[in-house]
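Re: your question from the hallway

Yes, I did run it. Sequences:
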Amino acid sequence: MAALGRPRGFDRAVALDGALQAFWEQGFESTSIADLTRRLGIAPPSLYAAFGDKRALFLEVLDLYYDRFVQFLDETLAVPGARRDAIAAMLLGIARFYSTPGLPRGCMVNTAAAPTGEPILLARLAELRSSVQERLRRETRAAADAGELPRDMEPDALAAVIWTAVLGMSMRSRDGADRDELESTARLTMTIWPPVRRSGDQS
Amino acid sequence: MAALGRPRGFDRAVALDGALQAFWEQGFESTSIADLTRRLGIAPPSLYAAFGDKRALFLEVLDLYYDRFVQFLDETLAVPGARRDAIAAMLLGIARFYSTPGLPRGCMVNTAAAPTGEPILLARLAELRSSVQERLRRETRAAADAGELPRDMEPDALAAVIWTAVLGMSMRSRDGADRDELESTARLTMTIWPPVRRSGDQS
DNA sequence: TCCGATCTGTAATCGTGACTACAGAAGTAC
DNA sequence: GTACTTCTGTAGTCACGATTACAGATCGGA
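Structure:
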């Protein structure tokens, strides 16, 4: 099980996390290999041996980021009770996530990385966004099935508005919006969806 | 009045419009000088003589784009009647603008151009966004002064939500959302702001 | 017609950034 | 200890893209 040859002189997971920070802050294009080697304290050949080229490293970083984000979604949406409350909590949680001290501003998938002229990376980013949007649609459809939506409200249209708010909050965070402002937007956005008292509800 | 020396062999305004298209579609970084000279049909020295360097050209393009956008805002918001109706029309107009056939998708200031590593350009873009956001705030404050807002609704928070929708719609347009979807989002977003019957209103 | 001024096209220059050749170091297996 | 394998550090290579030098072209004015 022990690896043959000289062992790697750095922790791969730590390096990947460092690359995540760098790409998240500066995006794909303006994060140079020199930036990465300086930040991670390893020389270019080590980087290339461990992760492949810059694109492959970025894709791996994306997966890491996305997995964490999905885990957050799962935890937030798993709470029992009205779907509306879970989604409201999720939107508020995203507002807070986008304004977490110590983390880069906004969402890496939405705003930070825009590698124009890198079709493969752009496609992957779009795929991840699409996946989250689809997840939101599942939630609002479930809410509709549970009778939590007003009769004239399309679940897909509701999901689209919420998704639009997520994207917009990410950009506003990049532009310097503070936590209070984002939370306010999250709350106000949810007023689109009036709580529908279901037959049998208390209070 | 006639210029001295050999006259320019191309129309400066047409070239500027071509550069606008190119930057809008591809962003600053991945639009190369070669792209521009090919598209505009002029050689590099002519481009540099007419516009200065790439950054200066981009800034001039930005001004052109922004002036047109502000003109659109002015026209849409100048209609008499309830401010809410004007703002709803503006949001709907933006949804349509972001999905205009023949134009690049989304807003150039919001999404297309993200010249990471170009602080001056980033600052200018942020400045333009901030300016539009401030414009929205003026509108919602005016609406509040006119008694069009519910008592517990902060005009700045309302402006922030609308601005968030603008940013989000721009990104969704880039991701392929069609006109119907964006219009639906614009309408649903405005349900945040319930029309308040003012004393003396008819119907 | 001749001159100075300005534009145009070709073909460089020049810097930057991704990527790698190579020599040495540091492990395991025998 | 020796052979084999894999990592590390230095110092490149190589391509690409912004920018410009230079020679020729085209204009108004004398």
